[in-house]
Amino acid sequence: MSGSRLAWFSHEICFWHDPGAGSGYVPVGPGVEPLRQFAVDPDLRRAEGLVKATGVMDHYTAHTPAPATDEELLLVHVPGHIERVEAASAAGAGDAGVYAHVNYHSARAARLAAGACVQAATGVLDGRFDRAYCLVRPPGHHAEPDRAMALCLYNNVAVAARAAQRHGARRVLILDWDVHHGNGIQRTFYEDPDVLYISVHQDGLFPAASGLVMETGAGAGAGSTLNVPLPAGSGHGAYLAVMERIVEPAARAFAPDLILVAAGVDAGGHDPMGRMMCTSRTFHTMASAMCRLADELTGGRVVFAHEGGYSAWYQPMLVLGTATGIAGLPAPEDPFLHSLEHLPGQRLQRHQERVIRHLEEHHPLLTGRPADGRPATAGHAVSGDAGPG
Ligand SMILES: [Zn+2]
Predict the structure, then answer these.
(1) Which of 50, 103, 189, 305 is the most buried (most CB within 10 A)?
(2) Are the CB atoms for 224 and 196 separated by under 8 Å?
(3) CB neighbours of 238 closer than 8 A, spacing ≥ 6?
(4) Residue-level pLDDT at 23
(5) Cα-to-centroid distance, 316 and ligand 1 (Å)
(6) How far is the CA of 152 from the centre of ligand 1 (A)?
(7) Mind listing the pLDDT tens digit for each residue in 9-62?
(8) Structural domains of the chain sorted by starting position, each given as residue range(s) with its CATH number in brackets
(9) Active-site pick, 59, 141, 142, 180
(10) Cα dist from 200 to 73, 92, 287, whole Å
(11) Is 59 one of the annotated active-site residues of the chain?
Protein backbone atom coordinates (compact mmCIF):
# COMPACT_ATOMS: atom_id res chain seq x y z
CA MET A 1 0.00 0.00 0.00
CA SER A 2 1.29 3.48 -0.82
CA GLY A 3 2.08 5.59 2.23
CA SER A 4 0.11 8.47 0.84
CA ARG A 5 -3.05 6.43 1.34
CA LEU A 6 -2.59 6.47 5.13
CA ALA A 7 -3.77 9.52 7.06
CA TRP A 8 -2.38 10.70 10.41
CA PHE A 9 -4.48 13.19 12.34
CA SER A 10 -3.05 15.15 15.25
CA HIS A 11 -3.09 18.70 16.53
CA GLU A 12 -0.75 20.56 18.85
CA ILE A 13 -3.66 21.87 20.94
CA CYS A 14 -4.60 18.29 21.84
CA PHE A 15 -1.24 18.16 23.60
CA TRP A 16 -2.10 21.28 25.59
CA HIS A 17 -5.09 19.73 27.33
CA ASP A 18 -4.09 19.28 30.97
CA PRO A 19 -6.38 18.11 33.80
CA GLY A 20 -4.31 20.09 36.32
CA ALA A 21 -2.42 19.29 39.47
CA GLY A 22 -3.15 15.95 41.00
CA SER A 23 -1.80 12.47 41.27
CA GLY A 24 -2.90 9.80 38.83
CA TYR A 25 -6.57 10.53 38.24
CA VAL A 26 -7.20 12.28 41.57
CA PRO A 27 -6.92 16.06 41.86
CA VAL A 28 -4.91 17.63 44.66
CA GLY A 29 -6.74 17.47 47.97
CA PRO A 30 -6.56 15.77 51.36
CA GLY A 31 -3.97 13.03 51.13
CA VAL A 32 -3.04 13.86 47.55
CA GLU A 33 0.29 15.54 46.86
CA PRO A 34 0.69 17.46 43.60
CA LEU A 35 2.34 15.30 40.97
CA ARG A 36 0.48 15.04 37.69
CA GLN A 37 -2.87 13.76 36.56
CA PHE A 38 -3.08 11.21 33.80
CA ALA A 39 -3.76 12.43 30.29
CA VAL A 40 -1.24 15.24 30.59
CA ASP A 41 0.03 14.98 27.13
CA PRO A 42 3.67 15.62 26.72
CA ASP A 43 3.59 11.81 26.69
CA LEU A 44 1.46 11.81 23.59
CA ARG A 45 3.78 14.27 21.88
CA ARG A 46 6.61 11.87 22.74
CA ALA A 47 4.64 9.08 21.11
CA GLU A 48 4.33 11.12 17.94
CA GLY A 49 8.03 11.92 18.23
CA LEU A 50 8.93 8.23 18.25
CA VAL A 51 6.74 7.58 15.21
CA LYS A 52 8.59 10.39 13.42
CA ALA A 53 12.07 9.46 14.61
CA THR A 54 11.72 5.88 13.41
CA GLY A 55 10.62 7.01 9.95
CA VAL A 56 7.21 5.39 10.32
CA MET A 57 5.48 8.75 9.97
CA ASP A 58 6.90 8.96 6.43
CA HIS A 59 4.38 6.28 5.49
CA TYR A 60 1.50 8.55 6.53
CA THR A 61 0.19 11.86 5.25
CA ALA A 62 -0.30 14.34 8.09
CA HIS A 63 -3.68 16.00 8.43
CA THR A 64 -4.60 18.92 10.69
CA PRO A 65 -8.15 18.43 11.97
CA ALA A 66 -10.78 21.12 12.22
CA PRO A 67 -12.73 21.34 15.49
CA ALA A 68 -15.96 19.35 15.60
CA THR A 69 -18.96 21.60 15.11
CA ASP A 70 -21.89 21.87 17.49
CA GLU A 71 -23.97 20.02 14.91
CA GLU A 72 -21.49 17.11 14.94
CA LEU A 73 -21.20 16.96 18.74
CA LEU A 74 -24.99 17.05 19.03
CA LEU A 75 -25.17 13.78 17.07
CA VAL A 76 -24.22 12.19 20.41
CA HIS A 77 -24.25 14.80 23.17
CA VAL A 78 -26.99 16.98 24.65
CA PRO A 79 -26.56 20.78 24.49
CA GLY A 80 -26.12 21.10 28.26
CA HIS A 81 -23.11 18.78 28.15
CA ILE A 82 -21.33 20.91 25.57
CA GLU A 83 -22.13 24.02 27.61
CA ARG A 84 -20.63 22.47 30.77
CA VAL A 85 -17.41 21.53 28.98
CA GLU A 86 -17.10 24.98 27.42
CA ALA A 87 -17.83 26.76 30.72
CA ALA A 88 -15.38 24.72 32.80
CA SER A 89 -12.68 25.21 30.22
CA ALA A 90 -13.35 28.94 29.91
CA ALA A 91 -12.97 29.21 33.69
CA GLY A 92 -9.49 27.72 33.27
CA ALA A 93 -9.92 24.76 35.61
CA GLY A 94 -12.46 22.46 37.19
CA ASP A 95 -14.32 19.23 36.65
CA ALA A 96 -16.53 19.19 33.56
CA GLY A 97 -18.23 16.03 34.77
CA VAL A 98 -17.01 13.12 36.89
CA TYR A 99 -13.20 13.03 37.11
CA ALA A 100 -12.96 15.01 33.89
CA HIS A 101 -10.79 17.95 34.82
CA VAL A 102 -9.93 20.61 32.30
CA ASN A 103 -7.74 23.60 31.64
CA TYR A 104 -8.21 26.62 29.41
CA HIS A 105 -7.30 24.64 26.26
CA SER A 106 -9.40 21.56 26.97
CA ALA A 107 -12.64 22.54 25.24
CA ARG A 108 -10.79 23.28 22.01
CA ALA A 109 -8.64 20.17 22.37
CA ALA A 110 -11.78 18.07 22.83
CA ARG A 111 -13.42 19.56 19.75
CA LEU A 112 -10.25 18.88 17.77
CA ALA A 113 -10.13 15.29 19.02
CA ALA A 114 -13.72 14.65 18.00
CA GLY A 115 -13.22 16.59 14.77
CA ALA A 116 -10.18 14.49 13.86
CA CYS A 117 -12.19 11.29 14.24
CA VAL A 118 -15.11 12.67 12.22
CA GLN A 119 -12.86 13.86 9.42
CA ALA A 120 -10.91 10.61 9.40
CA ALA A 121 -14.13 8.59 9.14
CA THR A 122 -15.69 10.73 6.41
CA GLY A 123 -12.32 10.82 4.62
CA VAL A 124 -12.08 7.04 4.34
CA LEU A 125 -15.73 6.88 3.28
CA ASP A 126 -14.98 9.39 0.50
CA GLY A 127 -11.92 7.40 -0.55
CA ARG A 128 -9.55 10.28 0.13
CA PHE A 129 -7.36 7.85 2.03
CA ASP A 130 -7.59 4.18 2.93
CA ARG A 131 -6.85 4.07 6.63
CA ALA A 132 -6.39 6.69 9.31
CA TYR A 133 -4.89 7.04 12.76
CA CYS A 134 -5.95 9.84 15.12
CA LEU A 135 -3.46 10.63 17.89
CA VAL A 136 -5.90 12.64 19.97
CA ARG A 137 -6.58 13.71 23.51
CA PRO A 138 -8.69 14.10 25.54
CA PRO A 139 -9.83 10.50 25.15
CA GLY A 140 -13.51 9.87 24.56
CA HIS A 141 -14.98 6.44 25.23
CA HIS A 142 -16.24 7.08 28.79
CA ALA A 143 -18.04 10.31 27.82
CA GLU A 144 -21.79 9.77 27.84
CA PRO A 145 -24.36 11.79 25.93
CA ASP A 146 -25.01 13.99 28.96
CA ARG A 147 -21.81 13.94 30.99
CA ALA A 148 -18.04 14.03 30.79
CA MET A 149 -16.39 11.19 32.65
CA ALA A 150 -13.00 9.80 33.58
CA LEU A 151 -10.75 12.11 31.54
CA CYS A 152 -13.17 11.96 28.57
CA LEU A 153 -15.00 15.12 27.45
CA TYR A 154 -16.59 14.31 24.07
CA ASN A 155 -17.02 10.77 22.82
CA ASN A 156 -14.72 11.02 19.82
CA VAL A 157 -15.41 7.61 18.31
CA ALA A 158 -19.16 7.72 18.94
CA VAL A 159 -19.42 11.13 17.29
CA ALA A 160 -17.39 9.78 14.36
CA ALA A 161 -19.69 6.77 14.03
CA ARG A 162 -22.80 8.94 13.95
CA ALA A 163 -21.16 11.31 11.45
CA ALA A 164 -20.21 8.31 9.32
CA GLN A 165 -23.80 7.07 9.34
CA ARG A 166 -24.93 10.51 8.23
CA HIS A 167 -22.25 10.35 5.53
CA GLY A 168 -23.60 7.13 4.05
CA ALA A 169 -22.15 4.30 6.14
CA ARG A 170 -25.04 2.02 6.90
CA ARG A 171 -23.35 -0.31 9.36
CA VAL A 172 -20.42 0.60 11.59
CA LEU A 173 -18.31 -1.74 13.70
CA ILE A 174 -16.59 -0.17 16.69
CA LEU A 175 -13.87 -2.27 18.32
CA ASP A 176 -12.61 -0.85 21.62
CA TRP A 177 -9.47 -2.45 23.04
CA ASP A 178 -8.81 0.20 25.69
CA VAL A 179 -8.30 -1.59 29.03
CA HIS A 180 -11.39 0.13 30.45
CA HIS A 181 -14.95 -0.44 29.31
CA GLY A 182 -16.23 2.20 26.91
CA ASN A 183 -19.49 2.83 28.73
CA GLY A 184 -20.15 6.00 26.74
CA ILE A 185 -19.92 4.24 23.38
CA GLN A 186 -22.03 1.36 24.63
CA ARG A 187 -24.73 3.65 25.97
CA THR A 188 -24.86 5.68 22.76
CA PHE A 189 -25.48 2.66 20.55
CA TYR A 190 -27.12 0.17 22.91
CA GLU A 191 -30.39 0.15 20.98
CA ASP A 192 -28.92 0.77 17.53
CA PRO A 193 -28.85 -2.36 15.35
CA ASP A 194 -26.57 -0.67 12.81
CA VAL A 195 -23.61 -0.10 15.14
CA LEU A 196 -21.86 -3.15 16.58
CA TYR A 197 -19.86 -2.24 19.66
CA ILE A 198 -17.24 -4.79 20.74
CA SER A 199 -15.25 -3.97 23.87
CA VAL A 200 -12.27 -6.01 25.06
CA HIS A 201 -11.42 -4.79 28.53
CA GLN A 202 -10.24 -5.78 31.99
CA ASP A 203 -13.15 -7.29 33.88
CA GLY A 204 -14.51 -5.08 36.62
CA LEU A 205 -11.87 -2.36 36.26
CA PHE A 206 -13.78 0.81 35.31
CA PRO A 207 -16.55 1.70 35.38
CA ALA A 208 -17.39 -0.87 38.03
CA ALA A 209 -20.09 -3.33 36.95
CA SER A 210 -19.94 -2.07 33.37
CA GLY A 211 -19.13 -4.09 30.28
CA LEU A 212 -20.51 -7.42 31.44
CA VAL A 213 -21.01 -10.36 29.07
CA MET A 214 -24.74 -10.13 29.76
CA GLU A 215 -24.89 -6.64 28.23
CA THR A 216 -25.63 -7.48 24.61
CA GLY A 217 -27.84 -4.60 23.48
CA ALA A 218 -31.53 -3.91 23.83
CA GLY A 219 -34.62 -3.36 21.73
CA ALA A 220 -33.77 -3.13 18.05
CA GLY A 221 -30.10 -3.21 19.08
CA ALA A 222 -30.33 -6.60 20.81
CA GLY A 223 -27.19 -8.52 19.90
CA SER A 224 -25.25 -5.48 18.69
CA THR A 225 -23.17 -5.07 21.85
CA LEU A 226 -20.47 -7.62 22.60
CA ASN A 227 -18.42 -7.32 25.78
CA VAL A 228 -15.29 -9.37 26.36
CA PRO A 229 -14.31 -8.79 30.02
CA LEU A 230 -10.94 -10.49 30.31
CA PRO A 231 -9.55 -11.28 33.76
CA ALA A 232 -6.73 -9.09 35.06
CA GLY A 233 -3.38 -10.47 33.98
CA SER A 234 -4.40 -11.28 30.41
CA GLY A 235 -1.65 -10.82 27.85
CA HIS A 236 -0.66 -11.36 24.24
CA GLY A 237 -2.18 -14.83 23.89
CA ALA A 238 -5.54 -13.86 25.37
CA TYR A 239 -5.90 -10.76 23.21
CA LEU A 240 -4.98 -12.62 20.03
CA ALA A 241 -7.43 -15.39 20.86
CA VAL A 242 -10.15 -12.76 21.32
CA MET A 243 -9.31 -11.29 17.93
CA GLU A 244 -9.44 -14.66 16.18
CA ARG A 245 -12.37 -16.25 17.98
CA ILE A 246 -14.59 -13.28 18.83
CA VAL A 247 -13.80 -10.11 16.91
CA GLU A 248 -13.22 -11.58 13.47
CA PRO A 249 -16.25 -13.91 13.35
CA ALA A 250 -18.52 -11.27 14.91
CA ALA A 251 -17.37 -8.71 12.36
CA ARG A 252 -18.01 -11.13 9.50
CA ALA A 253 -21.48 -11.89 10.84
CA PHE A 254 -22.25 -8.18 11.21
CA ALA A 255 -20.83 -7.11 7.80
CA PRO A 256 -19.93 -3.47 8.46
CA ASP A 257 -19.31 -0.72 5.90
CA LEU A 258 -16.78 0.97 8.15
CA ILE A 259 -14.60 -0.08 11.09
CA LEU A 260 -13.62 2.29 13.89
CA VAL A 261 -11.12 1.20 16.54
CA ALA A 262 -10.94 2.88 19.95
CA ALA A 263 -7.26 2.09 20.15
CA GLY A 264 -6.19 2.89 23.68
CA VAL A 265 -2.91 1.35 24.78
CA ASP A 266 -3.56 1.08 28.52
CA ALA A 267 -3.75 -2.70 28.27
CA GLY A 268 0.02 -2.41 27.89
CA GLY A 269 2.05 -4.29 30.47
CA HIS A 270 3.55 -1.23 32.14
CA ASP A 271 0.40 0.86 32.36
CA PRO A 272 -0.35 2.26 35.83
CA MET A 273 -4.14 2.09 35.31
CA GLY A 274 -4.60 -1.42 33.92
CA ARG A 275 -3.43 -4.84 35.01
CA MET A 276 -2.90 -6.43 31.63
CA MET A 277 0.32 -7.51 29.93
CA CYS A 278 0.08 -6.49 26.28
CA THR A 279 3.23 -5.51 24.38
CA SER A 280 4.00 -3.55 21.25
CA ARG A 281 3.70 -6.89 19.42
CA THR A 282 0.16 -7.29 20.68
CA PHE A 283 -0.92 -3.90 19.37
CA HIS A 284 0.95 -4.46 16.10
CA THR A 285 -0.79 -7.80 15.60
CA MET A 286 -4.24 -6.47 16.52
CA ALA A 287 -3.87 -3.40 14.25
CA SER A 288 -2.69 -5.61 11.38
CA ALA A 289 -5.63 -7.94 11.92
CA MET A 290 -8.13 -5.10 11.84
CA CYS A 291 -6.65 -3.78 8.61
CA ARG A 292 -6.92 -7.24 7.04
CA LEU A 293 -10.49 -7.47 8.27
CA ALA A 294 -11.25 -4.05 6.77
CA ASP A 295 -9.76 -5.17 3.45
CA GLU A 296 -12.07 -8.17 3.54
CA LEU A 297 -15.26 -6.48 4.74
CA THR A 298 -15.27 -2.70 4.21
CA GLY A 299 -13.12 -2.05 1.16
CA GLY A 300 -10.25 -1.25 3.54
CA ARG A 301 -12.06 1.52 5.38
CA VAL A 302 -10.79 1.61 8.97
CA VAL A 303 -10.02 4.42 11.42
CA PHE A 304 -8.02 4.06 14.64
CA ALA A 305 -8.35 6.64 17.40
CA HIS A 306 -6.17 6.84 20.48
CA GLU A 307 -7.92 6.56 23.84
CA GLY A 308 -6.17 5.75 27.14
CA GLY A 309 -2.50 5.05 27.73
CA TYR A 310 -0.69 6.23 30.84
CA SER A 311 2.77 4.72 30.99
CA ALA A 312 5.13 7.63 30.38
CA TRP A 313 7.87 5.40 29.05
CA TYR A 314 6.01 2.58 27.30
CA GLN A 315 3.08 4.39 25.69
CA PRO A 316 5.18 5.74 22.77
CA MET A 317 6.33 2.21 21.87
CA LEU A 318 2.75 0.93 22.00
CA VAL A 319 1.57 3.72 19.69
CA LEU A 320 4.46 2.80 17.40
CA GLY A 321 3.38 -0.83 17.46
CA THR A 322 -0.11 0.25 16.41
CA ALA A 323 1.15 2.65 13.75
CA THR A 324 3.44 0.06 12.17
CA GLY A 325 0.63 -2.47 12.09
CA ILE A 326 -1.66 -0.02 10.29
CA ALA A 327 1.11 0.82 7.81
CA GLY A 328 1.82 -2.82 7.01
CA LEU A 329 5.35 -2.53 8.39
CA PRO A 330 7.10 -5.09 10.62
CA ALA A 331 6.65 -4.79 14.37
CA PRO A 332 9.12 -2.29 15.82
CA GLU A 333 12.27 -3.19 17.69
CA ASP A 334 11.06 -2.87 21.27
CA PRO A 335 13.74 -2.50 23.93
CA PHE A 336 11.11 -3.01 26.64
CA LEU A 337 9.83 -6.27 25.23
CA HIS A 338 12.09 -8.46 27.34
CA SER A 339 10.42 -7.14 30.49
CA LEU A 340 7.03 -8.53 29.46
CA GLU A 341 7.41 -11.21 26.84
CA HIS A 342 8.74 -13.92 29.12
CA LEU A 343 6.05 -13.58 31.79
CA PRO A 344 4.25 -16.88 32.36
CA GLY A 345 0.75 -15.56 31.74
CA GLN A 346 1.42 -14.27 28.25
CA ARG A 347 -0.07 -17.40 26.73
CA LEU A 348 -3.83 -17.87 26.82
CA GLN A 349 -4.80 -19.26 30.23
CA ARG A 350 -7.73 -21.55 30.90
CA HIS A 351 -9.60 -19.05 33.05
CA GLN A 352 -9.25 -16.45 30.28
CA GLU A 353 -10.33 -18.92 27.64
CA ARG A 354 -13.58 -19.56 29.53
CA VAL A 355 -14.76 -16.01 28.79
CA ILE A 356 -14.10 -16.55 25.10
CA ARG A 357 -15.82 -19.92 25.06
CA HIS A 358 -18.83 -18.54 26.89
CA LEU A 359 -19.27 -15.84 24.27
CA GLU A 360 -18.81 -18.35 21.45
CA GLU A 361 -21.61 -20.41 22.96
CA HIS A 362 -24.00 -17.61 23.90
CA HIS A 363 -23.59 -14.36 21.98
CA PRO A 364 -26.13 -14.19 19.14
CA LEU A 365 -23.60 -12.93 16.62
CA LEU A 366 -21.40 -15.96 17.26
CA THR A 367 -24.03 -18.64 17.69
CA GLY A 368 -26.19 -17.57 14.78
CA ARG A 369 -29.23 -17.71 17.06
CA PRO A 370 -31.40 -14.59 16.95
CA ALA A 371 -31.07 -12.10 19.78
CA ASP A 372 -34.12 -11.62 21.94
CA GLY A 373 -32.92 -8.61 23.92
CA ARG A 374 -32.70 -10.60 27.13
CA PRO A 375 -29.42 -11.18 28.94
CA ALA A 376 -27.37 -14.04 27.53
CA THR A 377 -26.43 -15.09 31.04
CA ALA A 378 -27.16 -13.94 34.55
CA GLY A 379 -23.48 -14.03 35.51
CA HIS A 380 -21.00 -11.26 35.98
CA ALA A 381 -17.65 -12.51 34.83
CA VAL A 382 -17.93 -16.00 33.45
CA SER A 383 -14.74 -17.15 35.07
CA GLY A 384 -16.04 -16.49 38.53
CA ASP A 385 -12.78 -14.80 39.45
CA ALA A 386 -13.81 -11.28 38.58
CA GLY A 387 -11.91 -8.20 39.57
CA PRO A 388 -13.38 -5.57 41.87
CA GLY A 389 -16.81 -4.18 41.15
ZN1 LIG B 1 -8.58 3.41 29.40
Answers:
(1) 305
(2) yes
(3) 230, 348, 349, 352, 353
(4) 87
(5) 15
(6) 10
(7) 999 999 999 888 888 888 899 999 988 888 666 789 999 999 999 999 999 999
(8) 3-367 (3.40.800.20)
(9) 142
(10) 25, 35, 14
(11) no
